[in-house]
């Protein structure tokens, strides 16, 4: 549209018009635009309306002239009001969406509106308004979105079969679904209720899902046509089908997965029973052997070869006991998802001191320091806490240099305690740090006391207490293992 043509006005207050010689051309131009067009004065009353807008309003063009918009289009006047105010302030408004009724007989319309201020001699004289009816395009886009949503729902469920139902009555199914249930074609399923296919003990669960409209996957057992039970995973969602809301259900055959899970559970149970028997049969004689060697080590008068032999037997017994303990703990973490704890009031340095003293007896040639600072009280499983400290100390002793001292430092802080085991002679390659706490990891450069599970179990103990365990470099050289434990573990 030519702004100079639209914005020319005749003399006289509040009168918006084109010069006489331009009227035929102006009318043809505005009517050929394919949009509803109106020229409004400063009081926002139409002074001219084209045939397209008159058709949208259901009134003759002359019936619009001089009437307030609230009277002409009461259901859209409120939505137009802020847009008109912007135009009156000198702003061009383009492609503003407006929804409402222009003509009662035509119903609600979806419109696009544009407004421009009209100037005369530099002063505001009114507003030029154009309206484009996009109702059909809007409705077609809605239909397309509905169809696309349905197709996306089908595509989202790359499944073994799917069907549609309305309040439990099967409306449609694909061939894969009917074959999964042992039927020759989907037509044999249509019109029947879902309860006909669901195993009795699962019918209440399915009814609950339907009543609540849940859209989360769940497992159910169905009955095939021949009576065979079939475990399925089911996922349902609402879609529009033939103009109404129905439920699209996708299913996956999980019979192979269930069989594998059952086999795995049986294998784990057998392993648990076997390890339980081994634990019961070996722990008692190993305990007797360790107590006996301790008694011999406390005797006076043993010659050096005898004392060396007793120490070797004690270390071998400890290694066997450690391997047995690690194997049982590893099995518990895998079967039960973690280690069971028995928390009790404890003081960290008292627990660690016993571990250090025992290691000093077994490694008299090594220098072991124990440092304590702050409040070290808390609720922990003391047996597991001693095991954590012993596993860390064992790893440092076996991986660090033999002439390097080892320091255990326990520090109390707000909310928890820290146990750090460090040695300047301990080095761990950067590429190996991420795998230090993996199970069955063999330590390089040393013969491990156990099965390579020490650090793995130490981390599991820290995690079971609600803490964490990490390895890091020390500023003064060497490496350290640092365990942080809250004073009150999970469940307190």
From TrEMBL:
It catalyses: ATP + protein L-histidine = ADP + protein N-phospho-L-histidine. InterPro entries: BphY/WalK/GraS-like (IPR050351), HATPase_C_sf (IPR036890), HATPase_dom (IPR003594), His_kinase_dom (IPR005467), HisK_dim/P_dom (IPR003661), HisK_dim/P_sf (IPR036097), PAS (IPR000014), PAS-like_dom_sf (IPR035965). SMART domains: HATPase_c, PAS. It comes from the Bacteria. Its EC number is 2.7.13.3. Keywords: Kinase, Membrane, Phosphoprotein, Transferase. It is an enzyme of class 2 (transferase). It holds the Pfam family PAS_4. One of its GO terms (cellular component) is membrane. Residues 277-489 form the Histidine kinase domain. One of its GO terms (molecular function) is phosphorelay sensor kinase activity. GO terms for biological process: osmosensory signaling via phosphorelay pathway. This is histidine kinase. It comes from Myxococcus virescens.
């Amino acid at each position: 549209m030519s702004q100079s043509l639209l914005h020319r006005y005749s003399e006289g207050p509040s009168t918006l018009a084109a010069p006489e010689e331009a009227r035929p051309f102006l009318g043809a131009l505005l009517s050929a635009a394919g949009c509803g067009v109106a020229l409004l004065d400063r009081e926002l009353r139409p002074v001219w309306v084209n045939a397209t807008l008159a058709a949208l309003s259901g009134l003759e063009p002359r019936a619009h002239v001089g009437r307030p918009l609230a009277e002409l289009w009461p259901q859209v006047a409120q939505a137009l009001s802020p847009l008109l105010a912007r135009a009156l302030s000198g702003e061009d408004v383009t492609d503003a969406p407006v929804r409402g009724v222009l003509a009662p007989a035509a119903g609600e319309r979806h419109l696009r509106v544009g407004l421009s201020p009209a100037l005369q001699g530099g002063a505001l004289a009114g507003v030029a308004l154009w309206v484009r009816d996009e109702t059909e395009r809007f409705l077609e886009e809605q239909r397309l979105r509905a169809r696309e949503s349905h197709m996306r729902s089908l595509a989202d469920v790359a499944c073994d079969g799917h069907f549609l139902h309305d309040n439990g009555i099967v409306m449609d199914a694909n061939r894969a679904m009917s074959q999964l249930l042992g039927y020759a074609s989907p037509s044999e399923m249509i019109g029947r209720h879902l309860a006909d296919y669901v195993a009795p003990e699962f019918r209440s669960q399915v009814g609950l899902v339907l009543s609540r409209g849940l859209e989360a996957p769940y497992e159910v057992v169905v009955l095939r046509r021949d009576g065979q039970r079939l475990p399925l995973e089911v996922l349902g969602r609402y879609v529009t089908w033939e103009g109404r809301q129905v439920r699209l259900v996708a299913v996956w055959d999980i019979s192979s997965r269930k069989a594998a899970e059952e086999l795995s559970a049986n294998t784990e149970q057998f392993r648990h029973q076997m390890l339980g028997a081994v634990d019961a049969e070996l722990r008692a004689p190993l305990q007797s052997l360790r107590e006996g060697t301790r008694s011999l080590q406390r005797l006076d008068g043993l010659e050096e070869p005898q004392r060396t032999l007793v120490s070797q037997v004690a270390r071998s017994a400890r290694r066997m006991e450690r391997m047995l303990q690690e194997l049982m703990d590893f099995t518990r973490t895998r079967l039960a998802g973690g280690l069971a704890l028995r928390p009790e009031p404890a003081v960290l340095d008292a627990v660690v001191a016993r571990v250090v003293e025992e290691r000093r007896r077994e490694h008299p040639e090594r220098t072991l320091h124990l440092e304590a600072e702050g409040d070290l009280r808390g609720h922990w499983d003391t047996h597991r806490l001693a095991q954590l400290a012993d596993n860390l100390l064992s790893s440092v002793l076996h991986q660090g240099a033999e002439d390097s001292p080892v320091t255990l430092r326990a520090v109390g802080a707000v909310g928890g305690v820290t146990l750090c085991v460090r040695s300047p002679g301990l080095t761990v390659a950067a590429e190996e740090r991420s795998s230090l706490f993996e199970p069955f990891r063999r330590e390089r450069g040393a013969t491990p006391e156990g099965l390579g599970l020490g650090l793995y179990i130490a981390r599991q103990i820290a995690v079971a207490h609600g803490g964490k365990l990490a390895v890091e470099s020390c500023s003064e050289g060497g490496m350290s293992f640092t365990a942080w434990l809250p004073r009150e573990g999970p469940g307190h």
